[in-house]
Write a structure and sequence with these properties.
Blueprint (H helix, E strand, L loop, with lengths): L3 H17 L12 H12 L12 E2 L4 E2 L2 E2 L2 E12 L5 E11 L4 E2 L1 H11 L3 E2 L1 H16 L3 E10 H4 L10 E8 L6 H21 L2
Parallel strand pairs: 4-7
Antiparallel strand pairs: 1-6, 2-3, 4-5, 5-8, 8-9
Helix pairs in contact: 1-2, 3-4
The protein binds zinc ion (ZN).
Zinc ion binds next to loops.
Length: 202
């Protein structure tokens, strides 16, 4: 939740914005708009103030041929706000991590990525922040996030941009001192992940 003082600031700023746009904030349609906007932002843009979702960990980690297996989620909707224009962008996310000693609840993977989306941001930064949070929350070896999104700031400015998708992918890992074979395995996996994400997120 936004701190109470920030809610008042958002209300006042919204009334100022309406006036600057030549609208009368006291007319019937706009009368409660500053309050409504503050309430809405409190719900969807509180990421700078709310704690990330607590990660439930399960201690059984399945292995195959002695190797830990990546856990993947695809085709989950994601919404955020462009930091440059304060307009929404929305699309689909794919995320995966390679567990070490514990597993995250599956819904937690999506919640962690969505937590990072609850601030005005740029898609590139959102994707990297989400991969970093997924890695630290899972305490795993590596995490990857891919987002495909349509940006309203592009769409609203020209019909030619409608439906255009921006695709970003970020990886976070603990492979600084890994062997060449381990890095090769990581890169091979990331290529397969990207192909599956592009196929699923339709
Ligand atoms: Zn924008």
């Amino acid at each position: 939740m936004l701190p109470p003082a920030n809610l008042i600031d958002v209300q006042n700023a919204t009334a100022d914005l309406l006036r600057a746009l030549g609208c009368d904030p006291t007319s019937p349609h706009f009368e409660n708009t500053p309050k409504r906007v503050a309430k809405l932002y409190d719900k969807i843009l509180d990421g700078n103030f709310a704690d990330p979702p607590k990660a439930t960990a399960f201690e059984t980690v399945p292995t195959h041929d002695g190797r830990h297996q990546w856990v993947e989620v695809h085709n989950a909707p994601i919404y955020s706000f462009c930091a440059h224009h304060l307009l929404p962008f929305h699309g689909k996310l794919s995320a995966a991590y390679l567990p070490d000693c514990s597993l995250l609840g599956l819904s937690k993977i999506i919640k962690l990525v969505r937590h990072c989306a609850k601030v005005p941001t740029v898609q590139e930064e959102l994707t990297q922040n989400a991969a970093n949070l997924l890695l630290t929350s899972s305490k795993g070896f590596a995490a990857v996030v891919l987002i495909e999104a349509e940006h309203m700031c592009m769409t609203l400015r020209g019909a030619k941009s409608a439906g255009a998708l921006t695709v970003t992918q970020s990886v976070s890992h603990r492979y600084e001192h890994a062997s060449t074979a381990a890095l090769h395995h990581l890169h091979a996996y990331l290529e397969q992940f990207q192909a599956r994400a592009r196929a699923h997120n339709r």
